[in-house]
Design brief:
The two termini are 21 Å apart. The protein is built from 15 helices and 14 strands. A hairpin with a 7-residue loop joins strand 3 and strand 4. It has 2 domains: 145 residues, Nucleotidyltransferase, domain 5 (2-Layer Sandwich), CATH 3.30.420.40; 191 residues, Nucleotidyltransferase, domain 5. It is of the alpha/beta class and 401 residues long. The structure holds adenosine-5'-diphosphate. Adenosine-5'-diphosphate binds next to helix 10 and helix 12. The site of adenosine-5'-diphosphate (ADP) has 12 residues, from helix 10 and helix 12. It catalyses: acetate + ATP = acetyl phosphate + ADP.
């Protein structure tokens, strides 16, 4: 039995899960929020429904890690930090260098740092987490898992933009995708649920959350992905625009008297998407409520989101020459019965028929009818478990060397 800590360190937050492996049991789940900002808070769920909540000043990631490890002992989630034998870190951008999860060493830290300009908000925060845990748990087996790694199998015909080829050769400009850990996990779960080898399936996995992406998974490998060089593109997201015409940037900079590209990107990243179109909220639940009350812009916003999902599903069916299963996961994909229903109704042309009751109940597994031409699954994603499995795999490999 091993106790493994999985860390998702963002620019102002640090999420964690403590898992027992290989039993795949969750011991604790928590979040340190608003690091370095007024109103920091620590939330930990553990035991049989116990909760710890504390408002306190957390000035940086090092303090967050110190407090978290102190609390793990203080709350008797572990009696000794040495019980934690492995730590896994989710890293957003791995570029072309990282094609799978790796054991953290100085070389790995150097490379994550070198590609930081591809994810300036995320990679430095991920590195802070890696370094802070290296200090406090020096004996734990440390692994980095990359959100881009699963997409390293995407062929050039799908990852290259139609921009000058030298941009790719000299500056690594290409589609990298994101949410790879989630797409990988649910594609494996889907194959298991369908009782078929993933290598024999054409799947489309729809990770629909605050950030959303759609992935074509062919023969168990990522074949195309809606996110691009950065996670800004693809379908409409909570506050991210998804695909826009690049010429719009110059045009709107003129109109709005904006001289900085960072300011423009901030609008596309934080003031667009569901929030920007609706003018109401970035949360799908609020939009569904507003629609019920007759708000037409909320309704239009949801329709645009649904249209984008349908568009990518259609594109990936065409690219793969068919599809065996469509998977819904993440915040909206797992929990929003009405949004799934709207998407599925528009897939009737494929011969998709779905079970209204299972869809309404957020059933874990297959929600299509037995006669459906394409299987539809609603599956809970579990990125932390995927990372913990990678730690176990790499640890076993290292011990057998
Ligand atoms: P993150 O990308 O932060 O991990 P999540 O996958 O948790 O995001 O998704 C969060 C989003 O999921 C929320 O912003 C909300 O729009 C949506 N969501 C969660 N629950 C529901 C629900 N019951 N109905 C509709 N949307 C939901």
């Amino acid at each position: 039995m091993e106790k493994l800590l999985v860390i998702n360190s963002g620019s102002s937050s640090l999420k964690f899960k403590l898992l027992v492996m290989p039993e795949e049991k969750e011991l604790a789940d928590g979040l340190v929020d608003r690091i370095g900002i007024n109103g920091s808070q620590i939330n930990i769920k553990y035991g049989d429904g116990q909760k710890f909540v504390s408002d306190e000043e957390i000035k940086d990631h090092q303090v967050a890690v110190d407090r978290l490890t102190f609390l793990l002992k203080d709350l008797h989630i572990v009696e000794d930090l040495n019980e934690i034998t492995g730590v896994g870190h989710r890293v957003v951008a791995g570029g072309e260098y990282f094609k799978h999860s790796v054991v953290v060493d100085d070389e790995v830290i150097k490379h994550i740092d070198e590609i930081s300009d591809m994810a300036p908000l995320h990679n430095p925060a991920n590195l802070m987490g890696i370094k802070a845990f290296k200090e406090i748990l020096p004996n734990a087996f440390a692994v980095a898992s990359f959100d881009t790694a699963f997409h390293q199998t995407v062929p050039a015909v799908n990852y290259l933009y139609s921009t000058p080829y030298e941009w790719y050769e000299k500056y690594s400009v290409r589609r990298y995708g994101a949410h790879g850990i989630s797409h990988h996990y649910v594609s494996q779960q889907a194959a298991e649920t369908l009782g078929k080898p993933v290598e024999d399936l054409k799947l489309i996995t729809c990770h629909l959350g605050a950030g959303s992406s759609i992935c074509a998974v062919k023969d168990g490998k990522s074949f195309d992905i809606s996110m691009g060089f950065t996670p800004l593109t693809g379908v409409t997201m909570a506050t991210r625009s998804g695909d826009v015409d690049a010429a719009l940037l110059g045009y709107m900079m003129d109109k709005l008297n904006i001289t900085s590209m960072d300011e423009m990107l901030d609008i596309l990243n934080h003031k667009s998407g569901l929030l920007g179109v609706s003018g109401i909220s970035s949360d799908m639940r609020d939009l569904l409520e507003a629609e019920k009350e007759g708000n037409e812009r909320a309704s239009l916003t949801i329709d645009i989101f649904v249209k984008n999902v349908i568009k990518y599903i259609g594109e990936y069916i065409a690219e793969m020459g068919g599809v065996d299963g469509i998977v819904f996961t993440a915040g909206i994909g797992e929990n929003s019965m009405p949004v799934r229903k709207r998407i599925l109704e528009r897939l009737a042309y494929l011969g998709v028929t779905f079970d209204e009751e299972k869809n309404a109940a957020n059933y874990e597994g297959v929600i299509s009818q037995p006669d459906s031409k394409v299987a539809v699954l609603r599956l809970s994603t579990n990125e932390e478990l995927m990372i913990a499995r990678d730690i176990m795999k790499l640890k076993a490999e290292a011990e057998n060397k």
